[in-house]
Amino acid sequence: MTASLGGITGSASLAVTSTVAGITNVAMWHYDAQRTGLNPTEISLSPANVTPQTFGKLFSYLLDGYEYGQPLLMSNVVINGITRNVVFAATENDSVYAFDADNYNNGTPLWQVSLLQPGETPILDGPIQPVEGVTSTPVIDTTSNTMYVVSVQTLTSTGASTFRLNALNILTGAQTTGSPVTIQASVPGTNSDSINGVVSLTVSCVQRAALLVSNGTVYIGFGGCHSGWLLAYNELTLAQTGVFNASPNLNGEGLYASAGGVWMGGGGPAADDSGNIYITTGNGPWDGLTAWSDSVLKFSSDGKLQMLDYFTPDDYRYMNCHDADLASGGLLLIPGSTEALAGGKTGVLYLVNETDLGHEQDNDAGATQVVPGVLIDQDFLPYSSSCTDPPPFPPLTWTTNINSYEFFSTPSYFNGSVYVGLTPTSTAIPVGIVQFQYSGTLTAALTSLPAMQQGSNGATAFISANGTANGILWMIDHGDPLQNQYPPVGVPPTTAILRAYDALDLTTELYDSGINAGDAPGYGIKFTSPIVANGKVYIGTGHDLTTVPNPRGELDVYGSLP
Q: Residue 222, class by beta-carbon neighbours within 10 Å (0-12 exposed, 13-18 middle, 19+ buried)?
């Protein structure tokens, strides 16, 4: 095993060490419950000192599997009698790691635990290959030092698979009292999955959406199956307090036959200052009664998942027919406002008011603003697209305007600007991170250069800043991520690229991990995002291809060079 030292490859014992004073916690996906992706307490990194000459990869920790979720970080944690900053990673092999965030030492974790019980393995034949274990980003309650993480596993003797909610003490990795609990859910329903009038959660679903803790409740979203789910659990007792199913009665259609999956491009439920919960849902039927696909949904703050409000785009029928998920991207609650921002596979952004989401209206009259592609790039106008419902549904044709790019990202916010990562659907479309100025509505400003390539899914940016100064936008260019080696794409994966930009000038790239050979991270994993804390940047990548036995992941750590 080797460690990279700013372009120099040497033995692990030569890895850079540091003693940065910890001041920042990154305890959930995209930094906070509003999902802003902004760490405003970064005092070490600035546009002046993030250059290929002064900044680079310090070291990499090896993991026993791929990390599909985002790393988490807690500062000034006492483990084994030593106060340190600690970075956490969870893998598809159902393992959770805690590492010293600043000092490589010999690469040994502070602790490593398996969430598997005797006789269990991760799922071996699921939609995530080669194994499916922990897929979402866990969440840490910083007041109790408890990490909540969802695992999926198979009992070898019977082949039965289950989801479990695990509550871990972040100081030791041990399960807390009463943990874990098996995740089960059912609702009355008549869709094609129902048995005797009941629809139940199964492991055909994927728990991809990041977890959220709010007002003493853990929120968990499921998608990738027939009908999507949002579940709520009391974080102290791990008792289930709320169940929502996006379409218990109506069936999805088309290739995936989905109905309102809650996957959000790897993002997760968001919470406003009152604790109300917001999600986006994927393609499927909508009737405004029991079917809630392709919508922004608002739920009560008490953990009971009472739906309070909704917004559904006027072209929801096209979205359903064309597999054009609104939930392919995450949700941002814009700080200092009552506005929420979401976008999906049609390449359209919807700005909606949290106090009145606007429901479903002709021409999206209930939205505060609808941002079509023409506002992003005048050279590439939206174009008309049609889709006809497949049998056994009536052969009705739906038409709408879409763009040559999609949203698989969660927007970020900094200092009056919103930053959104676009994924092009054509090699001729020069898009990347688009900056919008926000003053009640959005106005397109700058687009990052170089542009993103087609197939690099999920450019979710993370921003580090010292208050409103020294803003740096960080993002992972996944290139062709590991998942693209499978049909229908079928191309070899490429090494990811960590990019950094001055948040005030996206046309100027400050840093690119592809410039110095020793800075290269592992293979890209789609939908993943970096985090920044205490002068360092952390990203999860793939160390090995999926074709090798027991492929490993890696946690790459970047910072100022000695």
A: buried
- Residue 160 CB: number of other CB atoms within 10 A? 11
Alpha-carbon distance of 166 to 174, in angstroms, equals 10
Query: Is the CB of residue 70 less than 8 Å from the CB of residue 210?
Result: yes
Buried b (16+ CB within 10 A) or exposed e, 355-386: eebbebeeebebbbbbbebebbbeebebeebe
Q: How far apart are CA 140 and CA 24, in angstroms?
A: 13
Place of tokens 């106008």: 381
Angstrom CA distances, 52 to 464, 529, 552, stand at 18, 21, 27
Residue in the structure block whose two tokens are 């709320």: 242
The CA angle 195-283-194, to the nearest 5 degrees, is 0
Q: What are the phi and psi torsion angles at 375 (to 5°)?
A: -80, -15
Confidence tier at 15 by pLDDT (50, 70, 90): very low
What is the Cα–Cα distance from 101 to 15, expressed in whole angstroms? Answer: 13
What is the share, in percent, of the chain residues with pLDDT greater than 90? 84
Strand 120-121 relative to strand 423-424: parallel, antiparallel, unpaired? unpaired
Q: Picking from 11-15, 198-202, 464-468, 511-515, which range would have the lowest pLDDT averaged per residue?
A: 11-15
* 163, 206, 275, 297, 319 from 260: Cα distances, Å: 20, 13, 23, 11, 11
DSSP, collapsed to helix, strand or coil, labels residue 245 as: strand
Q: What is the pTM of this model?
A: 0.95
| C-alpha–C-alpha distance, residues 406 and 344, integer Å | 6
Residue 154 has what pLDDT? 97
Domain boundaries, the chain: 2-560
| Residue 149 clears pLDDT 90, i.e. is over it | yes
Select 2-560's CATH number: 2.60.40.420, 2.140.10.10, 3.40.50.11240, 2.60.40.10.
2.140.10.10
Cα Rg of the chain (Å, integer): 22
Helix (H) or strand (E) holding 153: strand 146-155
List the strands of the sheet with 55-63, edge to edge. 55-63, 553-560, 536-542, 531-533
- Give the span between the Cα atoms of 333 and 339, in whole angstroms: 6
| pLDDT score at 375 | 66
Phi and psi, residue 477, nearest 5°: -85, 105
Q: Which whole number is the average pLDDT over 93-101?
A: 98
CA angle 24, 88, 29 (to 5 degrees): 65
**Phi and psi (nearest 5°) for 560?**
-65, 135
Contact 29, 40 (CB under 8 A): no
**pLDDT attached to residue 74:** 98
The pLDDT confidence band at residue 373, using thresholds 50, 70 and 90, is low
* 151, 133 Cβ separation under 8 angstroms: yes
82-96, 135-149, 215-229, 377-391: least confidently modelled range? 377-391
The pair of three-digit structure tokens given for residue 212, joined into one six-digit string: 């959220």
